[in-house]
Specification:
Helix content is 42%, strand content 19%. The protein has 2 domains: 135 residues, Winged helix-like DNA-binding domain superfamily/Winged helix DNA-binding domain (Arc Repressor Mutant, subunit A, Orthogonal Bundle), CATH 1.10.10.10; 216 residues, Dna Topoisomerase Vi A Subunit, Chain: A, domain 2 (3-Layer(aba) Sandwich), CATH 3.40.1360. It is of the alpha/beta class and 363 residues long. The two termini are 36 Å apart. The chain is globular and about 70 Å long. The chain has a 6-stranded mixed beta sheet, with helices on both faces. Helix 3 packs across helix 4.
Length: 363
């Protein structure tokens, strides 16, 4: 982040704190209004194709002991974040939770990390500044990218240029907490393949899939971190690269795809910053389980409930998803990405992905 961006983030935080003081001076009870972060206040924006918050709001007001404590904690957090930005430092969400134990008022300390995480989300929404611009980091996600892409990254030791095939080991280039510090210099990529599991990611790299098909293989590492989704969106928007998502064949993995393509309920305030509505789903599909006679596990009760919920989910209101989910409920089975190995270690790179991606018009 540039010095100007850091100053802007700090000013936004201090402006928010100043509002509390102005309310005191006016003789009004200090308060802070934020969108209600519940499923009932999430709307699917048909125009942008992402999840956004609705009109319902919640008020953090000092007219109750609980509300006053929330604002007190917000004030202490703002003070910490402003000093952190001024000093050019950063910290993790976990560290913020523990740091609060050193604050001079017991009432300002967080009772759990969930509470401090939620406060950071509140500050993001109200200030319009992302936590990355606050210099707040999650615990290490370890997500990586491997492929024909050359970048310039801003680090605390200065700029460095990296080719995400030639200058990295088999593990790939590790995505930084704030991918907006990356500048794209050159690329020979034809598409982005976002992969759920580490085992499948390693199989693709070992088989040279990234080199043979000019693919940028992004490891989602399960439910993808914000940094991973942000980089994926930038690769699509700025380099005009198609994005395809490759996951296990179960309802929880379909939601991983949904978070990449349409955003998640938790980060609905950042959907237009993180989500890639044009992302396509490449598999594993329930029809693959039948067509390739893949090794399977039976659906659990929670799997069934999740699939039935997805039939009502706006993100999955398409003919494709309705057919696939209903088929899965009918066969009562789920399957992992690596079940494709039952047809040989090279099947996924020699047959499955090339055929599917050709059908989709990606290859």
């Amino acid at each position: 982040m540039s010095t100007d961006d850091t100053s802007d983030a700090r000013e936004q935080l201090l402006s928010l704190a100043n509002q509390f003081y102005e309310q005191f001076e006016d003789g009004t009870v200090p308060s802070m209004e934020v969108p209600t972060r519940t499923k009932t206040n999430i709307e699917y924006d048909e125009d942008s194709g992402v999840w956004v918050y609705g009109d319902r709001t919640s008020t953090r007001s000092a007219n109750s002991v609980r509300g006053a404590q929330k604002l007190l904690k917000a004030t202490y957090a703002i003070d910490f974040l402003a000093r952190q930005l001024e000093e050019g430092r950063s910290s993790t969400l976990r560290e913020l939770y523990y740091l609060s134990e050193s604050w001079d008022l017991d009432e300002a300390q967080f009772s759990s990390q969930d509470e401090s995480n939620q406060l950071i989300e509140d500050l993001e929404i109200v200030s319009g500044v992302t936590r990355e611009d606050f210099h707040m980091r999650p615990e290490e996600s370890g997500a990586t990218v491997m492929g024909p892409l050359e970048i310039r990254e801003q680090t605390r030791r200065g700029e460095r240029e990296i080719h995400c095939q030639e200058d990295v080991g088999e593990g790939g280039y590790q995505i930084p907490n704030n991918p907006d510090t990356i500048e794209f210099l050159d690329n020979d990529a034809d598409f982005v393949l976002a992969v759920e599991t580490g085992g499948m990611r390693d199989r693709l790299v070992e088989n040279g899939f990234d080199e043979e098909y000019n693919a940028l293989v992004v490891h989602l590492k399960g439910q993808p971190a914000r940094a991973t989704r942000r980089l994926t969106k930038r690769l699509h928007d700025e380099l005009d690269l198609p994005v395809v998502v490759f996951t296990d064949g179960d309802p929880w993995s379909y939601r991983i795809y949904g978070s990449v393509a349409y955003g998640s309920i938790k980060s609905a305030h950042l959907s237009e910053y993180l989500a890639t509505p044009e992302a396509q789903y490449v598999g594993i599909r329930p029809e693959d389980i039948v067509e390739y006679d893949l090794p399977t596990d039976p659906l659990s009760d929670s799997d069934v409930n999740a699939l039935e919920s997805e039939l009502e989910d706006p993100r999955f209101q398409t003919e494709f998803w309705t057919e696939q989910i209903e088929l899965q409920l009918d066969i009562e089975k789920k399957s992992e990405q690596q079940s494709l190995a039952a047809r040989g270690l090279d099947f996924v790179t020699d047959t499955y992905l090339p055929e599917r991606l050709t059908e989709m018009g990606v290859l």
